Amino acid sequence: MIFYRTRSREDAEDICQEVLLTAFRNIKKLRQPERFESWLFRIAVNRVKDYHRRQKFRSLFSVLHDSDSEDNTEPPAERSTDTMDAIVRKEFWQNVQTMLGRLSKMEREVFILRFLDDLGIKEIADILKKSESTIKTHLYRALGKFKNDAAFRAFLKEARP
Amino acid sequence: MTIDTVTHIPEDRIIQIVADGRGAAPDEQVHLDRCGHCRNMMAELAGDLSLLRQQAARAAPDPERRFVLPAAQPATPRLRRWGWAAAGTALSAVLLVMVILAGREGGLPGLSPQTQTTVQWEDPELVKINMLAENALPDVYLDLSESLDGGYDEGFIDFLIPPLDDDSVS
């Protein structure tokens, strides 16, 4: 789920490590063990937010940001070993990015949690600390936009394995 | 709301059904069973979302790094820890008392207090050996010196058992 939000394996692994360590250190604070998954997701979502804040901050000072934001999402070794696969992946994520770009920030977060991370509405409400009705409102809007995105849905069908 | 085959399920409602993932209401389900249009629309939307999930999972690279978290120390029961500490303290106290008492009563004759504490629990033969080691002389010689407790004359002992480097014997 972290990779879906960073599109960089190395960054995703760094964040994953942070998430696991944070969870490990704070596991005693978890009062309802049945909510472990939501709790872990909340930590991850917050860490991803931190990551994007840092990225945004760095981009203000980095002239080279544009050159390393898209092209280096896959490590060079991976590109060289399976170039075709890398191109397919890159194209897929570019299309996902375009589709998600039509959603608001909250719609995007809810959509990813529901349809990519496969979480229920109650869990999403727990993670984002919002009411279920708020989550549903954003989710319905996001799904409506997805439904009307004929180009992306066509792409999904074409790219079907 | 009554739904028949003429009035289809509204598009917004189909979106809600798919998003909630809890299935349609009974009357909607009756309609869906009859109406291919609504059924196809719902199946197509759910199918596209399923495709998205599958392709996203496929397009995500496998993680290369392995995370190893520090193992938690197994909790030792407090009672057990206290039990060992109490036993150790009690044993030390008993030994200390025994040493003090042995020192007051004088212990075994001819041995230093240190040796006495060791010898008390040993075999009589070992006591003799220890005495020999301590005094380096058999009892008979100690009797000659009229004492077993080291009040012997060094010169007399040297006379009886000359040192090895004493040329006078050879």
Q: Main attributes?
A:
heterodimer, A: 161 residues, mainly alpha, Rna Polymerase Sigma Factor, Chain: A, Arc Repressor Mutant, subunit A, globular, B: 170 residues, 8 helices, 0% strand, rod-shaped, disordered C terminus
Protein model, in words:
The complex is a heterodimer of chains A (161) and B (170). Chain A has 161 residues and is an all-alpha fold. Chain A folds into two domains: 1-73, Orthogonal Bundle (Rna Polymerase Sigma Factor, Chain: A); 83-161, Orthogonal Bundle (Arc Repressor Mutant, subunit A), CATH 1.10.10. Helices cover 78% and strands 0% of the residues of chain A. The two termini of chain A are 21 Å apart. The model of chain A is unreliable at 67-71 (pLDDT under 50). By secondary structure, chain B is mainly α. Among the domains of chain B are: 11-59; 95-160, no CATH class. Chain B contains eight helices and no strands. Chain B is rod-shaped, with a radius of gyration of 49 Å. Chain B starts with 10 loop residues before the first helix and ends in a 10-residue tail after the last helix. At the A-B interface, helix 2, helix 6, helix 7, helix 9 and helix 10 of A face helix 1 and helix 3 of B.
Task: Give the structure's gist in a few sentences.
The complex is a heterodimer of chains A (161) and B (170). Chain A has 161 residues and is mostly helical.
Per-chain topology:
The complex is a heterodimer of chains A (161) and B (170).
Chain A: H1 2-6, H2 9-26, H3 36-61, H4 65-69, H5 76-81, H6 83-101, H7 105-116, H8 121-128, H9 132-148, H10 150-158
Helix pairs in contact in A: 2-3, 3-8, 7-9, 8-9
Chain B: H1 11-20, H2 26-34, H3 36-59, H4 78-105, H5 113-119, H6 124-135, H7 139-144, H8 154-160
> What structural category do the secondary elements of chain B indicate?
mainly alpha
The coarse overall form of chain A would be globular
Write down the CATH class of the largest domain in chain A: Mainly Alpha
Segments of chain B where pLDDT lies below 50 for 5+ residues?
145-150, 164-170
- Greatest interface and its participating residue counts: A-B, 36 and 27 residues
Structural class computed from helices and strand pairing of chain A = mainly alpha
Largest sheet of chain B: none
Mean pLDDT of chain A: 81
